[in-house]
Amino acid sequence: MRVKKEYFNSLKSTILNFRSKPLRTPSNLFVLNLALCDFSMVLVLPILIYDSIDHKYPGHLQCQIFALCGSISGIGAGATNAAIAYDRYSTIAKPFEGRMTYGKALILIICIWTYVLPWCLLPLTEKWNRFVPEGFLTSCSFDYLTPTEETKAFVGTMFVICYVIPMSFIIYFYSQIVCHVFNHEKALREQAKKMNVESLRSNQDANAQSAEVRIAKAAITICFLFVAAWTPYAVVAMIGAFGDQSLLTPITSMLPAVFAKTVACFDPYVYAISHPKYRLELSKRVPCLGINEKPPATSDTQSITTAA
């Protein structure tokens, strides 16, 4: 039942992007890309569940498919989260010059997949590293245990390219967003104090700001999930390649792998379901969910009031 629910959530995010005109925006192309990355992992989760319950070793083809989908999901989600962080930063910190266009979004998505695919295809074709069973031998990933210089080179390079670089972009852009919001609010309060008013915002501006902050909070939560999910797995891989392999028991290597793979199940909840426009469209199209999202107010009534 859980797997079926995650299929539904991933498909729901994807279908809403295609069918709902308000959601067909350049920025939401990144959400669609993230949903596709997550869906690639959700597709093969039944393999992990079935093999774990049945204590069954996956065959070679099954192992390759599982590891390929896991690589696409993990590396693709990291790069896409970095792009989402950049888009949120541009929208909030540079609202007039930083708006995303369809052309710019498509170029960034092409760059994402150009960045991601080599690290998925190199182990698949065994040109550099390979996909092997891991943990309890019920799932598969790239080889980080074979004690060779080639394995160390691959794991070290992948750690930097697929983990450190996306993480650095994510941390930088969201720290800039936080700084911008604090500085902007501080400037507004100081100006309002000089003008002897309580607020300089109109109702429409306040609603727009609230929506942007909600979207940023959702994106930050997803990026936190990405960090929390993939950091233990990255540590396990680095220990396997460069550290004391006796520390890696089947359970200590399997638990981070399972958690990293199941994070794909939570992205639709955190981002799409908490996104104001997604919630509004879900309220219209699937009223039985009981979301009851209200449309944003369009009134331009000013909220500037004289301070007593």
Automatic annotation (TrEMBL):
Belongs to the G-protein coupled receptor 1 family. Opsin subfamily. Keywords: Chromophore, Disulfide bond, G-protein coupled receptor, Glycoprotein, Membrane, Photoreceptor protein, Receptor, Retinal protein, Sensory transduction, Transducer, Transmembrane, Transmembrane helix, Vision. The chain crosses the membrane at residues 29-50, 65-84, 105-124, 153-174, 218-242, 254-274. This is Opsin, ultraviolet-sensitive-like. Coiled coil: none annotated. Residues 8-271 form the G-protein coupled receptors family 1 profile domain. GO terms for cellular component: membrane. GO terms for molecular function: G protein-coupled receptor activity; photoreceptor activity. One of its GO terms (biological process) is phototransduction. InterPro entries: GPCR_opsins (IPR050125), GPCR_Rhodpsn (IPR000276), GPCR_Rhodpsn_7TM (IPR017452), Opsin (IPR001760), Retinal_BS (IPR027430). It is found in: Membrane. It comes from Aphis craccivora. Its main location: membrane. It is a multi-pass membrane protein. The keyword Disulfide bond applies.
